[in-house]
Amino acid sequence: MVELNTENRQLFGEQVNDHIEKLNELMGLTSGESFGGDNIRKVCLATKLLVGSTRMLGLSEWSRTLDMLKQLLERSVVAGRSWDELLSQVVSEILETEEQAVAEILTGDVEAIDTTGSFGGLQREIDVILKEVFDADTGSDAGMKSASLSIKKNEYLDEPARGFSTMRKLMESLERVSKGFAEYIESPARGEDKFGEIEHSFGESRFLIGLVENILKRLGSSNRSFLPTVTGATVLEGVRDFFNLHSRLRGWNACLETLADEFSMEQDPASALAQVLEHCLFDTCRMHECKRDAKLEVKVTVKDEGSFLVVTCSDNGADFMCDSEVDREDAAAFYPGLLSIRTILKRWMGLLSVEPEKGNAARFRFTFPLSGRRTTYRIITASAKQFAVQARSVESITEMNDSEFIREINKQYVIRAGERIPVYRLDELAAEEIGTAGDDSQVMFVGLADERVGIMIERENQRVEGIVEQLTEGNWASLTKQCLHLGEDEFPVIDARLVLEKARYLNRLDNIEEETGSFVCMEEGGSGCNEETVPRV
Q1: Where are the beta strands (DSSP E) in 392-502?
Q2: pTM score
């Protein structure tokens, strides 16, 4: 949330006054008079700008009311509605509320604005008008009119950017991308020649967005960094578009349902999450292409677990991975997208489950972070010391008595869902840093993508949230790269990558065949010899 200082308080006040001026021009209309093209566009533009400012200031009720006003005015134009008492009453009440608000802003009392009380009733009024008056406009013709209005609005999108050519060029590039994309969808066979134009316009758009981002990074207060975020609804809407597009082009007999908690995430993990979901959906539907007579029903469920998401992709298709015991490394033979999915999840420290347990309809299940900075951790005790582990990298923690152990010469495993997972004490993984471990009563399963390792721990403590900080020094180099600071406490963060690397190294040592007679040592002061076995390392 942006804080108002002297300079931007004045700018925000001028923006509100400009919105009030445009609304007063509407109030000059007489009942039954048609909307003029110019005045309604000016009002919508001023409303859109004020929506962005109020949202940045954390005035959510004000922002939501303005969004609804803009929707009401735009739909009134599409429907050919004339100025009447209902619209006059809504605009009049918004005017009165904003005039009071701008007075409080200029006198320094922005925190005292009662946005809930002032705008709550207005939202209900606008909602009633939208539902009762525009119910008939839900058909395809209304949708076409709305699209037409959106295209017309592009005519004045450059108005707020007088002298700011970057924004104007960005909007023009995006419109060319939209137009070329629509032409290709209508006729893929004849649209191949459009790809060159789309590529150029898309590249130009991304370049211009980067320029705008650099400009925005220097705005706002000096102690606030610019952090682009994306809503979960936007991510899933893009995934649905991906699914619908390929369903149409490839002739999939499939439907997609999405069910998700409300969440927002940073731009980079949002893009990576969309890629993982697209790979999951494409692989599932591709494998079902040969069964066109049966309809494939796919469901994506997203649960918000605080700082990370748990995503499940389930369907009613054949359980290709369950029909036979397949080594996980060979799963790519069934799901080519897994090669990319694993790489992405390892980069974001996420877990992946491909083979569902018996009775579970999930084909893919994985964890994914909402942020690259703030993370939920488990604070655990192992080897009489406390450590932090990123929660999304922990599959589960179970009592040792509840697990089926297999012990071999120098190795031990836990059997989970028919798979042998290697288990180590923490002092085995970090022998140089950690002394003899205490009595372990639990096993914590840590991993990345679909690779797991069990670590014996003494007990599980609380779950906490904090910001990752680099660990520049310390005695935990073989297992940690970062440190979690909570008040005066400092917890080394066990890195799942390093744990897996160390476990693989130890497993290779365990599996090395012994070479006998390779080293002969004469004991000091003795007459005999002592033949020792030395493994290859």
Answers
A1: 394-399, 404-407, 412-416, 419-425, 442-448, 451-457, 459-470, 480-486, 489-494
A2: 0.61
